[in-house]
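Sample 3 of the quickstart, ligand BV8:
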Amino acid sequence: MPTLTPTPRLPLGDDTFLLVLTGAGVSADSGISTFRAAGGLWNDHKIEDVASVDGFFRDPLLVWQFYGERRRDVAAAVPNAAHRALVAVEERLGDRFLLATQNVDGLHGRAGSRRLIELHGSLLRSRCTVCDRPPFADAGYTPGKVPICGRCHAAGRDALIRPDVVWFGELLPDGALARIERFLDDAAAGRLLFLAIGTSGLVFPAAGLVDAVKARGGATWLVNADAAANDDRFDRVLRGGAGELIPALCS
Ligand code: BV8
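Result:
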């Protein structure tokens, strides 16, 4: 009978500054497909066809189908125990906590996370590809239709509406990385701890955060179901499901 090692606890002291990075794996226990697992979101599409500007203008109908179906999946999903455990840690650490997510599913926000940065934008907002109207809340999807901008149309222009997410080759939202840098600087007053959850460590600049923490002498932990591309960059790697491990880790 293999000895079941108890899940270690995160060393959360009164001087701990905790930066958390989540990826698709944290939402897997809410029934949301990840990208690169078997049967994952990328299996049926080439990344560049559905998550790039060129791919969008080449086939906006395909891209809207890809994102529209994910909007429906997210609408039917609820935050899981990992999302909730991170809210509890935020309540405990206050401004010594910051959560950066690569996910666009909005589940951290729905769970109650507030000190949250959505590095790759949000599936639940759309924006115009031409005019400067601000991104707007939009959880809708009409199969077979590509939404166009009413304001541009009224001005006699044709302009497609797109999901307000960050595609490959696009910059992250203004200020997102700067806010993380400021948090890492503030952490010099205490002890810096980095926890990555449910990410394959393949997409930059998110996958480089572990190195930014190490450069500052911070401790780095990873909870992931399978081996990640940057496993070796972490001091501690816990193999397993976020829904099960994160509540124990953060208790
Ligand atoms: C940029 C859109 C400046 C929304 C996404 C430096 C080096 C190399 C390349 C680059 C670099 N800098 C920039 C690049 C290019 C590119 C990039 O990183 N390419 C990669 C593929 C090599 N980066 C960019 O273009 C970024 N922009 O840097 O701008 C620039 C521009 C041009 C050139 C240079 C610089 C923009 C990146 C954002 C792309 N948009 N999504 C959407 O559709 O969602 S990224 C996409 O992948 C998703 O958003 C997702 O967030 C992201 C990462 O995937 P993961 O979250 O890790 O998901 P994955 O399925 O891969 O893994 C899930 C893991 O969970 C698995 O390991 C699994 O084992 C685990 N798991 C599963 N179940 C569970 C679990 N773990 C725990 N519990 C479970 N139950």
